[in-house]
Amino acid sequence: MSDTTNKNGDGAVSSEEIKDTAAKPAKDIRDAFTAAKNASDEVAEEFETEDIEIDDDDDVTEADSEETDLEETESDDSAYEESEYENSEYEESETDVEEDEYEEETSVAATVGGTAVAAVVATDPSRTTYEAALSAVANDAIAKKQRTLRYRIKKNKASYIMIGPYFILFFFFTILPVLMSIALSFTYFNMLEMPKFNGWSNYTKLFLNDDIFLISLKNTLIFAVVTGPISYILCLLFAWIINEFRPKVRTFLTLIFYAPSICGNAYMVWSLILSSDRYGYLNGILLKLGFINEQKLWMQDADLILPCLIVVQLWLSLGTGFLSFIAGLQTVDKSLYEAAAIDGIKNRWQELWYVTLPAMKPQLMFGAVMQITQSFAVADISIQLAGNPSVNYAGATVVTHLLDYGSTRFDMGYASAIATVLFLLMVGSNKLVQKLLRRVGE
Cα dist. 124→95, 102, 271 in Å? Predict the structure, then answer.
């Protein structure tokens, strides 16, 4: 493209004209700047060339004025120095105050902790660190006050009044007897004389000299290990199956499974089944079928007593825990199963482990406590079916041994030591079960 363009019609101009038009404002600005500079130079020259006439009489006055100016200058200098000194002192004092405030802020922040201060600052960014620290201290004091038992009782006074009667009964008939039993376990107490402190002698006798207690402890642990988990699993399995039926059928089956545990001495029917003569139901059936050639002494044979008692205990185990599982299954939200199917649950067993059991953990815990109590507290079945004492103490349990010393011999100190050991066994088993139940659904 050429530097110039020819006029091809109306309105067409050359590039030189465009350049001249664009450069014209800049030229005007340069001219104005040059004129202003020249005017200032002329004013300066006139000021320098102007003659100031001073008379001879004015020399002294001028000298006096110079001395006065000098004194005023010196006074101004001294005043300036004093003001500078005062300013420096004020700045130093301000610095000291700032340092003190910083140290105070640091100490308060260190006392409260960075997390609390950060939380307050995040809530209100306009606050300084010191204000945030003071606010955090106040919040911490309020939180400590709210954690006290007195504050909680005062705040929830109506609730504590409602549970007051039950708590009084629970304290006097459960907590207080347990504490008294633990205290009496360190004494000799025969119900006729005042308790006499004897230290650890009851526990020493219990584990080192009492062979019957060791047999009873072994039988109780076998009962707990076998009947506890098996009865717990059976309760859950039967409850899960029964829950799939229609409401009327479910109610009927629940009554059938729960009936043995609510019928008082229902286990006495087993005295007819396990009768030692040939007219006992079990002996008659086995003889007729040819499994045995002569009747078995079910409750007189030391090798058969414990297995028979375990069977009877399992038959009675579908009790309160079973009902709690039925209730827990009824409360599971049905929408959880639909969500689980979308997430990839493939069969009923995965549905049970990942959906049903996690949704009924409170009922699982309650059922576990009930089964632990039943398995460790076996006594009536052994006494009614095998007698007390049983043959070679084959059916003896910790509770039967406790009843022997407490109700027959009235050695309450020794009986309290046995009860304390049983209490610790139940508490330890309960803690172990709680730890296992926390892993349900993982």
Answer: 27, 20, 78
Give the single-character DSSP code of 371: H
Q: Where are the CATH 1.10.3720.10 domain residues in the chain?
A: 205-437
* pLDDT tens by residue, 111-168: 444 555 455 445 555 555 555 566 666 777 777 777 787 888 888 888 888 988 999 9
How would CATH label the architecture of 205-437?
Answer: Orthogonal Bundle (1.10)
pTM > 0.70: no
Q: Give the whole-angstrom CA distance, residue 431 versus residue 428.
A: 5
- Find, among 367, 402, 407, 370, the residue nearest to 220 by Cα: 402
Helices (H), 147-280: 149-155, 157-170, 176-184, 201-208, 211-242, 247-262, 269-273
- Angle (CA) 288 292 295, round 5°: 90
Helix, strand, coil percentages for the chain (3-state, nearest 5): 75, 0, 25
pLDDT tens per residue, range 337-376? 888 888 888 888 888 888 888 888 888 888 888 888 888 8
In the structure, how many helices (H) and strands (E) does the chain have? 21, 2
